[in-house]
Amino acid sequence: MYRSLHLSSNPNGESTVEELASFRHDLHLGRDLRIIATVKNCFQVDKNCRQEAQRARQHPEIHGREKVRPFYYGLVVAYSLAHDRLAWDLGDAEWSFSSLEPYCIDIFDKLISLCGGNCVEIVDMDSGVKRSFQHPWLRQAHSVQFSADGRRLLVSSSGFDAVFEFDVSTGKTCWEWFAWDHGLDQSRLGEYFVRSRQRGEELAAQGHKVVLVDDPSQHELGIPTRFCPVHINGAFYDRDENLLVTLFQQGGAIRVDKATGEASTIASGLINPHKLHSRSEGGYYVADTRRGELLLLDDGFQVVRRISLREAPGAVRSALLTEFLQSVSELDDALFACVDIHRSTLWLIDVNARRYRGVTFPREWSVHDIALNHCSPAMKDLVSKTFGRVDATVDVQGGKRICHFSPEGSENTTYILDSDGRTTGGKIEI
Hints:
The protein is mainly beta. The chain has a single domain, classed as TolB, C-terminal domain (Neuraminidase, 6 Propeller). Helices cover 5% and strands 40% of the residues. The chain contains two helices and 32 strands. A five-stranded mixed sheet has the order 1-20-19-18-17, with no helix packed on it. It has a five-stranded mixed sheet with strand order 2-24-23-22-21, with no helix packed on it. Strands 3-28-27-26-25 form a five-stranded mixed sheet, with no helix packed on it. The longest helix is centred in the first third of the chain and has 11 residues, at 44-54.
């Protein structure tokens, strides 16, 4: 059995915080590796300004938007880590393609899966055949993972606090789990969100404020982050193929037994965590996002190391912005890629040798996740066939332009940013 960890008390004192700045800077770290980055959109500067303004509202500790926003085009881009920066114009990229709000990818053999918006796609990299998997309750797909045998696909639905498992061969749902149906139905603002009218009536009779969501078609983009009870932002298999689920709003993580649907708390006291995931050589890791820490856990989910970005080189842009470690990925045994969104830096951290290197990316990029690139060589040929291309340029005044195209070559949309990285014309809700 595991014991639930709770960071705010840390009663055993087993995990002293290690500052990344105390590690040795290694210019050669990870240069032989190739990665894929998902960039959900290019409006991070606008998003930072919106988050700064929201710090003045009541209950600023409750993170997120108060109304859902449209999905925007982002990009998926492959780079060699021989580069010290990921360039806006994509000149050094191995390949890149346009995608509607891409969040996460996973690769199994010749299949690559990509989630974003309200669906998840699987592409056969050899044939170029693309299939889309959908579900009535799939909104704001945040994470995707193949099962160990590649036969099933696990997807988290942040918009409705749900997790779905699809059969890869048929595309049919073979398992589903809803947090609201298992007691995780009260938002931090006090409202209860329910899918059952009977459950809603029971809660209302007790004097609670209830939001009945029994028809997902009435919520095209899901529930706004600020009001969502938990805002599930990641679901991944543990070694027994039960589920590890991060709860953004509740600051914790649970383990869901697939056989029974029962959920057990394995972490609390985190601040808007992301991606609780198994390590290659045993144990687990998770991003304690707004605390700015990479946590390494043992097989019993106890914290064994805490590595902080708070004193990392490069200042957070505004005193009103908290740390924001968007995600963490283990690229090799003990080598982690950490997306530090407010420093526009991908930190490569060798936790065993205590070494690090930073790879910068454009401040406009809202980078969400990093994966090791072991795609088929045919992947590059799929751009402008299966996927639409993306063109990005910078003018002499520093303004930026990014154009997104359909696979057929027609222009889907063009976004224009000024020299400060802001969108112009007030057309973007971010």
